[in-house]
Amino acid sequence: MNKEEPKYGWYVKNLIIGFNIVGLLGLSAFVYGFLIDGVVKIILIISGLGVILVFLWPGIGMIIMHLLLLRKMPKIDLMARMKALDEIDNPQILDVGCGTGRTAIRIAKALMNGGHLFGIDIYSKLAIPGNSLDTVQNNAIIEKVEDKTTFQYGSATDIPFEENRFDIVNASSVLHEVHDPNGQDKAMQELYRVLKPEGYLYLSEWNRTSWQCIAFCGLCCYAFKKKEYWDKLLKENNLKDITYENITGFGIFSARK
Ligand SMILES: C[S@@+](CC[C@H](N)C(=O)[O-])C[C@H]1O[C@@H](n2cnc3c(N)ncnc32)[C@H](O)[C@@H]1O
Description:
- The chain is an alpha/beta fold.
- It folds into 2 domains: 60 residues; 179 residues, Rossmann fold.
- It is 42% helix and 19% strand.
- A hairpin with a 2-residue loop joins β6 and β7.
- α1 runs antiparallel to α2.
- The protein starts with 12 loop residues before the first helix and ends with a strand.
- The mean pLDDT is 91.
- It binds S-adenosylmethionine (SAM).
- S-adenosylmethionine binds next to loops.
Protein backbone atom coordinates (compact mmCIF):
# COMPACT_ATOMS: atom_id res chain seq x y z
CA MET A 1 0.00 0.00 0.00
CA ASN A 2 1.39 3.42 -0.97
CA LYS A 3 1.73 5.76 1.99
CA GLU A 4 0.58 9.29 1.17
CA GLU A 5 3.45 11.78 1.62
CA PRO A 6 2.96 15.27 3.07
CA LYS A 7 3.32 18.06 0.51
CA TYR A 8 5.58 20.69 2.06
CA GLY A 9 6.77 22.14 -1.27
CA TRP A 10 9.88 24.09 -2.22
CA TYR A 11 10.24 27.66 -0.96
CA VAL A 12 10.09 30.26 -3.80
CA LYS A 13 10.10 27.50 -6.44
CA ASN A 14 8.67 29.67 -9.22
CA LEU A 15 11.23 32.39 -8.52
CA ILE A 16 14.04 29.81 -8.69
CA ILE A 17 12.75 28.50 -12.05
CA GLY A 18 12.42 32.06 -13.43
CA PHE A 19 15.91 33.06 -12.25
CA ASN A 20 17.46 29.96 -13.87
CA ILE A 21 15.67 30.52 -17.19
CA VAL A 22 16.79 34.19 -17.38
CA GLY A 23 20.25 33.19 -16.09
CA LEU A 24 20.70 30.54 -18.79
CA LEU A 25 19.75 33.10 -21.45
CA GLY A 26 22.47 35.34 -20.00
CA LEU A 27 24.95 32.45 -20.09
CA SER A 28 24.08 31.79 -23.75
CA ALA A 29 24.62 35.46 -24.63
CA PHE A 30 27.93 35.44 -22.74
CA VAL A 31 29.21 32.33 -24.56
CA TYR A 32 27.91 33.53 -27.96
CA GLY A 33 29.74 36.82 -27.43
CA PHE A 34 33.06 34.95 -27.67
CA LEU A 35 32.09 33.46 -31.04
CA ILE A 36 31.46 36.76 -32.86
CA ASP A 37 33.32 40.00 -33.55
CA GLY A 38 32.61 43.72 -33.30
CA VAL A 39 30.76 45.92 -30.82
CA VAL A 40 28.02 43.31 -30.35
CA LYS A 41 30.67 40.95 -28.92
CA ILE A 42 31.45 43.38 -26.07
CA ILE A 43 27.75 44.08 -25.44
CA LEU A 44 26.88 40.36 -25.28
CA ILE A 45 29.79 39.48 -23.00
CA ILE A 46 29.19 42.33 -20.55
CA SER A 47 25.39 42.04 -20.45
CA GLY A 48 25.61 38.22 -20.32
CA LEU A 49 27.98 38.43 -17.36
CA GLY A 50 25.62 40.85 -15.58
CA VAL A 51 22.66 38.50 -16.05
CA ILE A 52 24.74 35.53 -14.82
CA LEU A 53 25.67 37.39 -11.64
CA VAL A 54 22.19 38.71 -10.93
CA PHE A 55 20.08 35.68 -11.95
CA LEU A 56 22.07 32.47 -12.56
CA TRP A 57 24.16 32.73 -9.38
CA PRO A 58 21.16 32.90 -7.00
CA GLY A 59 19.15 30.60 -9.29
CA ILE A 60 21.66 27.76 -8.94
CA GLY A 61 22.63 28.79 -5.39
CA MET A 62 19.03 28.56 -4.17
CA ILE A 63 18.72 25.05 -5.62
CA ILE A 64 21.87 23.97 -3.78
CA MET A 65 20.65 25.74 -0.63
CA HIS A 66 17.32 23.93 -0.82
CA LEU A 67 18.94 20.55 -1.30
CA LEU A 68 21.29 21.15 1.62
CA LEU A 69 18.79 22.92 3.88
CA LEU A 70 15.76 20.74 3.32
CA ARG A 71 17.80 17.56 3.67
CA LYS A 72 19.57 18.92 6.70
CA MET A 73 16.43 20.29 8.35
CA PRO A 74 15.44 17.10 10.16
CA LYS A 75 18.97 17.08 11.57
CA ILE A 76 18.80 20.74 12.64
CA ASP A 77 17.22 19.92 15.93
CA LEU A 78 14.96 22.94 16.38
CA MET A 79 13.10 21.06 19.10
CA ALA A 80 16.27 20.67 21.17
CA ARG A 81 16.60 24.44 20.99
CA MET A 82 12.96 24.91 21.98
CA LYS A 83 13.70 24.07 25.60
CA ALA A 84 10.41 25.65 26.60
CA LEU A 85 8.59 22.65 25.10
CA ASP A 86 9.83 20.46 27.96
CA GLU A 87 9.52 23.11 30.65
CA ILE A 88 5.85 23.95 30.25
CA ASP A 89 2.89 21.69 30.98
CA ASN A 90 0.27 21.60 28.27
CA PRO A 91 2.04 24.31 26.20
CA GLN A 92 -0.06 26.51 23.96
CA ILE A 93 2.00 27.31 20.88
CA LEU A 94 1.49 29.68 17.96
CA ASP A 95 3.42 29.20 14.73
CA VAL A 96 3.21 32.43 12.75
CA GLY A 97 3.63 31.99 8.98
CA CYS A 98 3.19 28.21 9.25
CA GLY A 99 2.87 27.79 5.46
CA THR A 100 2.50 24.13 4.52
CA GLY A 101 3.53 23.13 8.06
CA ARG A 102 7.15 22.07 7.58
CA THR A 103 8.13 23.53 10.99
CA ALA A 104 4.71 23.63 12.69
CA ILE A 105 4.07 19.92 12.26
CA ARG A 106 7.52 19.05 13.61
CA ILE A 107 6.73 21.09 16.71
CA ALA A 108 3.36 19.35 17.05
CA LYS A 109 5.06 15.95 16.75
CA ALA A 110 7.37 16.91 19.61
CA LEU A 111 4.38 17.49 21.96
CA MET A 112 4.50 14.40 24.13
CA ASN A 113 2.55 15.53 27.20
CA GLY A 114 -0.38 17.59 26.03
CA GLY A 115 -0.31 21.02 24.49
CA HIS A 116 -1.68 22.36 21.23
CA LEU A 117 -0.17 24.06 18.22
CA PHE A 118 -2.03 26.83 16.38
CA GLY A 119 -0.75 27.95 13.00
CA ILE A 120 -1.59 31.09 11.04
CA ASP A 121 -0.48 32.24 7.60
CA ILE A 122 -1.59 34.37 4.67
CA TYR A 123 -0.72 31.32 2.47
CA SER A 124 1.31 33.13 -0.19
CA LYS A 125 1.81 30.91 -3.24
CA LEU A 126 4.83 32.99 -4.25
CA ALA A 127 6.54 31.86 -1.02
CA ILE A 128 5.63 28.17 -1.52
CA PRO A 129 3.70 26.80 -4.54
CA GLY A 130 0.68 24.83 -3.27
CA ASN A 131 0.64 26.86 -0.03
CA SER A 132 -2.91 26.79 1.36
CA LEU A 133 -4.98 26.10 4.45
CA ASP A 134 -6.14 22.82 2.87
CA THR A 135 -2.52 21.74 2.24
CA VAL A 136 -1.35 22.32 5.81
CA GLN A 137 -4.46 20.67 7.28
CA ASN A 138 -3.99 17.67 5.00
CA ASN A 139 -0.29 17.45 5.91
CA ALA A 140 -1.28 17.40 9.60
CA ILE A 141 -3.65 14.48 8.94
CA ILE A 142 -0.95 12.56 7.02
CA GLU A 143 1.55 13.21 9.84
CA LYS A 144 -1.09 12.17 12.41
CA VAL A 145 -1.05 15.43 14.40
CA GLU A 146 -4.49 16.72 13.43
CA ASP A 147 -5.75 16.42 17.05
CA LYS A 148 -2.95 18.62 18.37
CA THR A 149 -3.08 21.28 15.66
CA THR A 150 -5.41 24.04 14.49
CA PHE A 151 -4.60 26.04 11.38
CA GLN A 152 -6.32 29.17 10.13
CA TYR A 153 -5.81 32.27 8.02
CA GLY A 154 -4.10 35.18 9.78
CA SER A 155 -1.40 37.78 9.27
CA ALA A 156 1.66 38.34 11.44
CA THR A 157 0.76 42.04 11.50
CA ASP A 158 -2.75 41.43 12.84
CA ILE A 159 -2.69 38.14 14.78
CA PRO A 160 -6.26 36.85 15.31
CA PHE A 161 -5.79 35.91 18.99
CA GLU A 162 -6.20 37.75 22.27
CA GLU A 163 -3.20 39.07 24.20
CA ASN A 164 -1.27 36.89 26.68
CA ARG A 165 -2.60 33.74 24.98
CA PHE A 166 0.49 31.62 24.17
CA ASP A 167 3.37 30.05 26.11
CA ILE A 168 5.48 29.80 22.96
CA VAL A 169 5.40 31.78 19.71
CA ASN A 170 7.50 30.66 16.76
CA ALA A 171 8.15 32.41 13.43
CA SER A 172 10.47 30.47 11.11
CA SER A 173 11.70 32.31 8.04
CA VAL A 174 8.64 34.54 7.89
CA LEU A 175 9.27 38.09 9.09
CA HIS A 176 11.63 38.97 6.19
CA GLU A 177 8.59 38.39 3.95
CA VAL A 178 6.44 40.99 5.72
CA HIS A 179 6.80 43.95 3.38
CA ASP A 180 4.05 46.39 4.45
CA PRO A 181 5.37 49.74 5.74
CA ASN A 182 6.59 49.19 9.32
CA GLY A 183 5.28 45.64 8.89
CA GLN A 184 8.16 43.91 10.67
CA ASP A 185 7.88 46.27 13.62
CA LYS A 186 4.11 45.76 13.73
CA ALA A 187 4.60 41.97 13.49
CA MET A 188 7.07 42.02 16.39
CA GLN A 189 4.55 43.99 18.48
CA GLU A 190 1.94 41.38 17.65
CA LEU A 191 4.22 38.45 18.55
CA TYR A 192 4.86 40.18 21.88
CA ARG A 193 1.18 40.94 22.47
CA VAL A 194 -0.04 37.34 22.12
CA LEU A 195 2.77 35.90 24.30
CA LYS A 196 2.01 35.23 27.97
CA PRO A 197 4.24 37.09 30.45
CA GLU A 198 7.54 35.13 30.61
CA GLY A 199 6.47 33.30 27.41
CA TYR A 200 9.09 32.25 24.85
CA LEU A 201 9.58 33.67 21.38
CA TYR A 202 11.61 31.81 18.72
CA LEU A 203 12.56 33.66 15.56
CA SER A 204 14.51 32.03 12.72
CA GLU A 205 15.96 34.07 9.87
CA TRP A 206 18.82 33.97 7.36
CA ASN A 207 21.61 36.39 8.24
CA ARG A 208 22.32 38.50 5.15
CA THR A 209 26.00 39.00 6.00
CA SER A 210 26.75 35.31 6.55
CA TRP A 211 28.99 33.84 3.84
CA GLN A 212 26.46 31.06 3.26
CA CYS A 213 23.68 33.55 2.50
CA ILE A 214 25.92 35.49 0.09
CA ALA A 215 27.25 32.29 -1.55
CA PHE A 216 23.80 30.78 -2.08
CA CYS A 217 21.74 33.87 -2.83
CA GLY A 218 24.19 36.28 -4.52
CA LEU A 219 22.52 39.69 -4.76
CA CYS A 220 19.27 38.11 -3.52
CA CYS A 221 20.81 38.03 -0.03
CA TYR A 222 19.37 41.57 0.15
CA ALA A 223 15.96 39.89 0.58
CA PHE A 224 17.17 39.09 4.10
CA LYS A 225 18.31 41.28 6.99
CA LYS A 226 21.44 41.29 9.09
CA LYS A 227 21.13 39.46 12.38
CA GLU A 228 21.75 42.80 14.17
CA TYR A 229 18.49 44.11 12.66
CA TRP A 230 16.40 41.37 14.33
CA ASP A 231 18.33 41.71 17.57
CA LYS A 232 17.52 45.45 17.67
CA LEU A 233 13.86 44.83 16.81
CA LEU A 234 13.54 42.28 19.61
CA LYS A 235 15.11 44.69 22.12
CA GLU A 236 13.03 47.66 20.95
CA ASN A 237 9.92 45.58 21.56
CA ASN A 238 10.91 44.80 25.16
CA LEU A 239 11.86 41.16 24.66
CA LYS A 240 14.46 39.95 27.16
CA ASP A 241 16.93 37.06 27.67
CA ILE A 242 17.78 37.21 23.95
CA THR A 243 20.11 34.50 22.65
CA TYR A 244 21.22 33.77 19.09
CA GLU A 245 22.53 30.59 17.55
CA ASN A 246 24.08 30.60 14.10
CA ILE A 247 23.41 27.40 12.15
CA THR A 248 25.33 27.65 8.88
CA GLY A 249 24.18 31.20 8.21
CA PHE A 250 20.62 30.56 9.36
CA GLY A 251 20.04 31.94 12.84
CA ILE A 252 17.62 31.10 15.63
CA PHE A 253 16.82 33.81 18.17
CA SER A 254 15.25 32.84 21.46
CA ALA A 255 13.75 35.52 23.73
CA ARG A 256 11.20 35.95 26.51
CA LYS A 257 8.42 38.44 27.21
C1 LIG B 1 9.59 30.70 3.70
S1 LIG B 1 7.96 30.32 4.14
C2 LIG B 1 8.20 29.56 5.72
C3 LIG B 1 7.05 28.67 6.10
C4 LIG B 1 7.18 27.93 7.43
N1 LIG B 1 7.36 28.84 8.55
C5 LIG B 1 8.29 26.91 7.41
O1 LIG B 1 9.12 26.90 8.33
O2 LIG B 1 8.31 26.11 6.47
C6 LIG B 1 7.30 31.92 4.59
C7 LIG B 1 5.82 31.87 4.97
O3 LIG B 1 5.46 33.16 5.50
C8 LIG B 1 4.15 33.44 5.06
N2 LIG B 1 3.89 34.89 5.23
C9 LIG B 1 4.38 35.92 4.50
N3 LIG B 1 3.91 37.09 4.97
C10 LIG B 1 3.11 36.78 6.03
C11 LIG B 1 2.33 37.55 6.93
N4 LIG B 1 2.25 38.89 6.85
N5 LIG B 1 1.63 36.90 7.89
C12 LIG B 1 1.67 35.55 8.00
N6 LIG B 1 2.39 34.77 7.17
C13 LIG B 1 3.11 35.38 6.19
C14 LIG B 1 4.11 32.93 3.65
O4 LIG B 1 2.81 32.76 3.18
C15 LIG B 1 4.88 31.61 3.80
O5 LIG B 1 4.02 30.56 4.11
